[in-house]
Amino acid sequence: MRLVALVSSACLLAACAPKTANAPAATTPNPSSTVSPSPIQASPTPPPSAVTAPSHVFVIVMENRSYGQVAGNGYIAQLAAQFGVATDYHGVSHPSLPNYLAMTSGSTWGIADDGFHALPAGGLGAQLTSAGTDWRAYMEGMSNGCFNSRYPYALKHNPFAYYGSACPSQVVPFTQFASDISGAIVPRFVWITPDMCHDGHDCSNAVANSWLSQTVPLILNSTAWQDNGVLLITWDEGEDSANSVLTLVIHPNPQLHQSAKPYDHYSLLATIEDQLGLARLGLAAQATPMNDLLATQPPPKLGSHVLQG
Question: What is the pTM of this model?
Answer without folding.
Answer: 0.84
